[in-house]
Design a protein that fits this description.
36% of the residues lie in helices and 25% in strands. It contains eight helices and nine strands. Helix 5 (161-177) links the parallel strand 6 (149-153) and strand 7.
Length: 252
């Protein structure tokens, strides 16, 4: 498969009146079409900064991003649903702003809502939905813009553990069913292993990529994040990533 995204020698410095801080140092990676890449690193290491640079929300100090002409969709840490708009109105908001809400996109939104069990809640307000349903609605809002690459910024971190397991299964299935490429960031080792095709382990600031690992799990049946946790290789990857993160912590 060809690369759908190339991140080339990215550096990012932030400046204040008192100091210059280097956040990212020579970040390099590529993502292939249909791949789920997870950026795993400690809190505050700059994972979200990488996503913001890929999305074009921040300029790198040095380096370049090549999206090969592909469209980016961004799902933030919180669902960012407006409480005064119905679920349908929340989902169509981006298309309305871009003046792209036509009959074709309306049919596509209806398809997504029906397939992912939100059609009957389309006229409800966010406060009337569970946390998991709101996350699904937020992803459908992103998918409605028809992106090629999805960026997910710790999108499950605000959920309780049981809901989080269910939602990661839901989101994973949607990403795979819709044939999307995705980059997720997390500090949760188990979540990284269960979701990823590839894991890039990040260091503390200034952040570098310590290592990149292809995830190969032996599973009965189709992979889901929930059953990935039962794979015999799961503990091996967990121990490996834990040691890498701990060794980096000791070097600080």
């Amino acid at each position: 498969m060809s690369n759908i995204l190339d991140v080339n020698h990215i550096y990012k410095d932030f400046y204040s009146l008192d100091e210059e801080r280097q956040i990212l140092k020579d970040i390099n990676f590529s993502v292939k079409e249909g791949e789920i890449l997870v950026l795993l690193g400690p809190s505050g290491c700059g994972k979200s900064t990488i996503l913001n640079i890929i999305a074009g929300l921040l300029e790198p100090t040095a380096g370049s991003i090549d999206t090969h002409g592909k469209k980016i969709g961004y799902m933030f840490q919180k669902d960012q649903l407006f409480e005064w708009r119905t679920i349908m109105k929340n989902i169509t908001l981006g298309l309305e702003i871009q003046h792209k809400l036509d009959d074709k996109t309306k049919v596509e939104i209806q398809r997504l809502l029906q397939i992912y069990d939100l059609w009957e809640f389309r006229n409800n307000f966010p406060r009337e939905l569970s946390g998991g349903m709101k996350q699904r609605a937020a992803l459908i809002r992103t998918l409605a813009l028809n992106p090629d690459i999805l960026l997910l910024d710790e999108s499950f971190s605000g959920l309780d553990f049981q809901t989080r397991l269910t939602v990661t299964d839901d989101i994973y299935k949607i990403i795979k069913k819709e044939n999307k490429t995705a980059i997720l960031v997390t500090h949760d080792i188990s979540e990284a292993i269960s979701l990823a095709d590839t894991v890039a382990v990040l260091s503390h600031r200034p952040t570098t990529i310590q290592s990149v690992h292809q995830i190969h799990l032996t599973l009965d049946g189709e992979k889901t994040p929930f059953n990935a946790r039962t794979a015999p290789e799961f503990q091996h990857y967990f121990d490996l990533f834990w040691k890498e993160l701990q060794n980096d912590e000791k070097r600080q």
